[in-house]
Prior knowledge:
This protein is α+β, with helices and mostly antiparallel strands and 185 residues long. The protein has one domain: Beta Polymerase, domain 2. Helix content is 47%, strand content 18%. Strand 4 and strand 5 form a beta hairpin. The longest helix is centred in the last third of the chain and has 17 residues. The two termini are 29 Å apart. 31% of the residues are buried.
Amino acid sequence: MLDAISVSLVDHDSRWIGVAAAYAEKLDVLGDLVLSIHHIGSTSVPGLLAKPIIDLLPVVSSIAALDDQLWKIEALGYRLYGEYGLPGRRFCALPGKNTRLVHLHFFEQGSDQIFHNLAFRDYIRAHPEAASAYATEKRRARALHPDNSHGYTAEKAAFVQATSKLAHAWFADQPVGRDLLARPA
Length: 185
């Protein structure tokens, strides 16, 4: 089980894009198994208040093949958590001092979770009013659970779920979303 940590929310840092790219580059240890890597989560949305933890979504050609190579991710300092509540995911976290630096959410090509994560990210990026509402919800959840990241995440879950429904419908009409939906699972 991933330990709960204190919830730190900070203003967007433009350096996060470069930091995410640097962590993504280290996943080259997996070679051709990784098809693409997406920077997701709040640190990937310019202007959005965020916990300063980089979330990356590496898309792999095979989860079974990834399982045979997870030792390479562990050698980079990540802790492995298996599916961690989402079937088909391989979740890994890079610990820092009293925090986590990076979350890796590996999914096999064709997973619905790829569409879900990119839809939410791109919807929040494209809709400033949704980003503002999300920042308000994050502040509310943090006020209720300042020392418990699990409680914080659970507290904002209803907002994320409702926004995800809007995001999915919107993203399905976008070229990237249509392309993802057209790919066989």
